[in-house]
Design brief:
The complex is a heterodimer.
Chain A: E1 2-6, H1 7-17, E2 22-25, H2 32-38, E3 45-48, H3 52-64, E4 69-74, H4 75-91, E5 97-103, H5 117-123, E6 127-128, H6 133-150, E7 154-159, H7 160-163, E8 165-170, H8 187-190, H9 194-217, E9 221-224, E10 227-234, H10 236-245, E11 249-254, E12 256-258, H11 262-271, E13 274-278, H12 284-291, H13 311-318, H14 345-355, E14 359-361, H15 386-398, E15 406-411, H16 412-428, E16 434-438, H17 468-474, E17 482-485, H18 490-501, E18 507-511, E19 523-525, E20 531-532, E21 551-554, E22 559-562, E23 568-571, E24 574-577, H19 587-591, E25 597-598, E26 609-610
Parallel strand pairs in A: 2-3, 2-4, 4-5, 5-7, 6-7, 10-11, 10-13, 14-15, 15-16, 16-18, 17-18
Antiparallel strand pairs in A: 1-8, 6-12, 9-11, 19-26, 20-25, 21-24, 22-23
Chain B: E1 5-13, H1 18-31, E2 35-42, E3 50-58, E4 73-76, E5 94-98, H2 105-108, H3 118-125, E6 128-132, H4 134-141, H5 147-158, H6 163-172, H7 179-192
Parallel strand pairs in B: 1-4, 4-5, 5-6
Antiparallel strand pairs in B: 1-3, 2-3
Classes of the chains: A alpha/beta, B alpha/beta.
């Protein structure tokens, strides 16, 4: 049977067909749908892990028992999981273990565009790289076979254009798990004391040679010999772009990105006149092929390192006479940048932080959008947990100069992922910094995944929910410095932030009653849309400064207008609320200095009616 | 269609059903016996940002992304976004566009003006432009959100694929309670062309 599947759906299907029993992941674009889809298969125990390191360690534990196990994550997630990965390469596996890295060339939704092929070389593990959905499914199954045959974790690398592209896939049956499930003592394999680690390093190097030999005849490293004037060495999504532009040249398509088949490459190069290496991001294959002593005619001397490739970019880089289509419309087109949703609780938080003129250390999540205009109130973002981590260091150097001047914001999921240890670092080292945990009840940006604070598992079962206040206290935050506040209640929230940022001790504010506005299980009902009283709006534009998609500026209201008490005044325009978009969160209602925004805000003055 | 692969670009604003429309297209083309690839970009935010999806079908499709200048059908769920994709088109590109206007933030804030020359730009540069009041038609049928299906109905008239296959793939992606409405929306779209 055939079905149109995304790369991520195909990876999930491949895991099921391969007889996987355990899968763990932390959500991150473009990888999130892998585990979401795996969780729908009854036969697989699927978990959201607290972070990627936990996901890989859990998969390792499952593999130790003989189960086939998968961990999936975005490219930067592998940085977090790198600690177990580097030594897992030494121990090897029992049941097959596959680590899926979904890279994000072009940074569609990421903080960098690192090329995770380097990890395969670094960790000395094999890496497979599918070029479409069918291969994504097939390569998962092959990856498990390689993992068990060579006693190694195997990396499978996807990119956004594989994970989020769809193609036709021939579905197969599930292979029944065959390994007996048990824990067998074998300290020389599993206990990485120096004495055993030294032995295992030799095994890793021997394994690498065997894998190189395997790569020489691996059918997914395949030659397509046509016009031999040019031979293109490529793989993954780049293969598709190259085929699109150069359908007639000869190809060496690398299904295995690492290790490289040196003899096969030599044979291919001997058959063609010129050699092109077409790869996205770093010159990973190019440099390794050059290090083998071969000449590469075209590689990163023509093809961009930054950003993703596309048929257009390949044509532009490699066909001298290619011209991009001429610009039909040359006037500026108003952009449609990503924006916080109408009613988003983060908007209320940033309104207050901006008003207090705080320097805001931010983190990874929807709230990173607080850096964009008109809110423009988030000042740093590096990696998961960095808000708390960097606040600690800054507070130590600046000391009391940070009081009332600096704060950090971190989402609930991000806090549990990487904010707990830096918070402990704050209390332990007597930092005066303030952490605001933006608890919106879910991992929102990646599409609403559960985490240890939500009360639900990946399979939708009820479970514990971490209490952030109790956790903060356990980490050493004094009880009077760990407080809850509702960001939709602008006055109260401002007071709490002002008080806590002025304390000379570590403090934590947890937002309360402020779930993601798109989270169906949290919101019992939205409020009726608000509206602008045209007789009261002075056109001061304060409500526009919160960047709510529901509020716009109407210049047709410029000029003289009659106020409620009959006076004639002048204005440049007036605000208008789009009732299709407004859900009545009440932020603009509270901040309008002229009471020009009207609506029913008595029953639910702050935010929405919630299912608690 | 004289060439091997047909390219469709679907675009609009987050929340308008751009991805659903392109999924239905991909299913339909597969059911009709073609190779299909599709690639989408939905930005970081879930609502209100630009969303686009490339759909390609033919005997053998390599790239999931369309080369600039090679779109055969531009399928737009909001008018303004059309301008952003014109360099993916050529004079023979057939354009289907919902007449609905959704202001981008810079227009809402009064920082930029809404382009008023979209219709004439399209008419001057392309031979086949279908302006369709899809959102309005869908509202009249009972739900503005079926605008994407009105456009699909219109598209289906332009492609040589059985209507039955379209309907089957459309309904397979929707809950039963929405079937009647969407069948009507699809039929209304077919009437337009």
């Amino acid at each position: 049977m055939k079905k149109v599947l995304s790369g991520n759906e195909a990876i999930a299907r491949g895991a099921w067909e391969a007889g996987v029993l355990f899968a763990s992941a932390y959500p991150g674009t473009p990888s999130s749908e892998i585990l979401e889809n795996i969780a729908q298969y009854e036969e697989i125990k699927a978990e959201w892990a607290t972070n990627e390191k936990d996901a890989l360690m859990a998969a390792t534990g499952a593999s130790m028992t003989g189960a086939r196990a998968m961990a999936s994550m975005k490219h930067v997630g592998v940085n977090v999981a790198a600690d177990p990965l580097m030594t897992l390469s030494y121990t090897g596996v029992n049941g097959g273990l596959v680590l899926v890295t979904a890279d994000d060339p072009q940074l569609h939704s990421s903080q960098n565009e690192q090329d995770n092929r380097h990890y395969a070389r670094f960790a000395k593990v094999p890496m497979l790289e599918p070029s479409d959905s069918q291969e994504a499914k097939d390569f998962v199954k092959i990856a498990f076979e390689i993992s068990e045959r060579f006693d190694t974790p195997v990396m499978l690398r996807s990119v956004t254009r594989i994970s989020h592209s769809k193609g036709v896939v021939e579905l197969g049956q599930r292979q029944q798990p065959s390994h007996p499930l048990e824990l067998k003592k074998d300290e020389a394999k599993w206990v990485m004391l120096p004495v055993y680690g030294r032995q295992r390093h030799h095994i890793v190097e021997e394994r690498f040679l065997k894998l190189k030999e395997f790569a020489e005849t691996f059918p997914e490293n395949r030659m397509e010999i046509n016009d031999t004037s040019v031979g293109i060495i490529t793989g993954g999504i780049s293969y598709q772009y190259a085929k699109e532009i150069f359908p007639n040249y000869s190809y060496l398509k690398l299904g295995m990105s690492w290790p490289l088949p040196e003899r096969l490459i030599a044979e291919f190069i001997s058959k063609v006149d010129k050699v092109y290496v077409i790869e996205e991001l770093d010159p990973f294959w190019e440099e390794n092929i050059k290090a083998m002593g071969f000449k590469v005619d075209i590689g990163k001397n023509k093809i961009p390192i930054c950003g993703e490739l596309s048929p257009t970019i390949v044509a532009k880089a490699l066909i001298p006479e290619y011209r991009e289509p001429k610009q039909i419309y040359s006037k500026p087109i108003p952009p449609r940048p990503p924006n916080l949703c109408p009613g988003c609780p983060h908007r209320a938080v940033f309104y207050t932080l901006k008003k207090l003129k705080l320097f805001v250390h931010g983190d990874i999540g929807c709230y990173t959008l607080g850096a964009l205009p008109p809110l423009k109130s988030l000042d740093t973002t590096i990696c998961m947990g960095s808000s708390v981590g960097v606040s600690e260091g800054a507070s130590q150097v600046l000391e009391e100069k940070t009081l009332g001047k600096m704060v950090c914001v971190i989402g609930d999921s991000t806090f549990l992922h990487s904010g707990v240890t830096p918070l402990m670092n704050m209390t332990y080292n007597k930092s005066n910094a303030t952490v605001i945990i933006l608890d919106n009840w879910v991992t929102a940006m990646t599409g609403a995944q559960e985490h240890p604070g939500t009360g639900y598992t990946a399979k939708g079962e009820g479970t514990i929910a971490i209490d952030y206040i109790e956790l903060a206290k356990a980490l050493g935050v004094k009880p009077q410095n760990a407080r809850r506040a509702n960001p939709y209640n602008v006055e109260e929230f401002e007071r709490v932030v002002r008080e806590e940022t002025n304390k000379g001790e570590t403090s934590v504010i947890v937002t309360v009653d402020a779930p993601c506005v798109l989270l169906r299980r949290a919101i019992k009902s939205y409020n009726e849309p608000l509206w602008v009283d045209e007789q009261l709006c002075t056109g001061c534009r304060l409500c526009l400064e919160i960047g709510c998609p529901a509020i716009s500026w109407d210049v047709s209201k410029a000029g003289d207008y009659k106020t409620a008490d009959g006076k004639i005044k002048k204005r440049k325009g007036a605000a208008v609320i789009n009732k299709m978009l407004c859900n009545g969160c009440g932020l603009c209602y509270q901040i309008c200095k002229f009471d020009a925004i009207k609506g029913k805000k008595e029953e639910v003055p702050f935010g929405f009616q919630l299912n608690k | 269609m004289g060439k091997d692969v047909t390219n469709l670009l679907v675009a609009g604003v987050g929340g308008q059903g751009v991805i659903l429309a392109s999924d239905i297209m991909a299913d339909t083309f597969m059911e009709a016996g073609y190779d299909v690839k599709k690639s989408e970009v939905h930005g970081m935010a879930q609502r209100g940002g630009s969303v686009s999806s490339h759909v390609r079908f033919g005997n053998k499709v390599y790239s999931p992304i369309i080369k600039m200048g090679e779109v055969d059908y531009l399928f737009m769920t909001v008018k303004l976004e059309t301008l952003r994709w014109l360099n993916y088109c050529n004079p023979s590109t057939v354009i289907l566009v919902d007449e609905i206007e959704i202001n981008p933030p810079a227009v809402n804030l009064g920082q930029m003006e809404y382009p008023r020359d979209i219709d004439e730009t399209l008419k001057e540069n392309f031979k086949m432009v279908h302006f369709i009041k899809a959102t309005e038609m869908a509202s009249e049928l009972g739900n503005a959100r079926a605008a994407n299906v009105v456009l699909l109905g219109a598209l289906s008239k332009l492609l040589d694929i059985d209507e039955d296959i379209w309907i089957k793939c459309l309904l397979a992606r929707l809950p039963t309670k929405l079937h009647e409405l969407n069948k009507k929306a699809f039929a209304a779209g077919r009437e337009v062309i």
